[in-house]
Amino acid sequence: MPALVLAAVAAPPAMSSAVLVRPEDVSVKPEIIQRPEQPYAAVRGTVTMQTFSEIADRLPELIGSLLARGVHLAGAPFFRYTLIDMQAHLEVEAGIPTLGVIEGEGDVFGAVLPAGRYVSLTHVGHPDELVDVTGRLLTWADGEGLSWDKTDTDQGEQWGCRLEVLKTDPRVEPDMTQWETDLVFRLAEQPAGRSTSPTT
Q1: What 3 state SS string does the chain have?
Q2: Reported confidence tier of residue 6, pLDDT bands at 50, 70, 90
């Protein structure tokens, strides 16, 4: 994700239970966590890696419009990747958690992030490093025999819930090498009675 897309995002404080990892900490393992349903408000767009700012730059506008409507925000803003074809296009939502499901207005809509088991990892560093960090996360999950909540389609990978949560307010921390981003990817549903805890 291009670094410039985060520069205008002001993130409300949010708690994280993710493992903290810096680029040099290649041995740090992610965690598997259970997340409840989470209402959110968002806008969506179809972009490429080169035009990602078209959706990212809408986050300040989204947050401002929600606050103007009196909507209570409930966490840090995020990008939700719903369809991924790295060589062609990405379908992405720019969103923020809310206390309840809101009514849509214009191209702003309300929805709910699904409950379930997620792999969670926190990256501290420049946003340009996220592609490599995500690759390591996906490789780790393959090695652990974990299955993602995703379906391969002719248009690309359709993800049930794949999030990049923007934890740092650039107004407070302008140094992009210190920015925190949570990678939170939903796992496929387990068959009853089966456990898929990561190996140690």
Answers
A1: CCHHHHCCCCCCCCCCCCEEECCCCCCCCCEEEEECCEEEEEEEEEECCCCCHHHHCCHHHHHHHHHHCCCCECCCCEEEEEEECCCCCEEEEEEEEECCCCCCECCEEEEEECCEEEEEEEEECCHHHHHHHHHHHHHHHHHCCCCECEEEECCEEEECCEEEEECCCCCCCCCHHHCEEEEEEEECCCCCCCCCCCCC
A2: very low
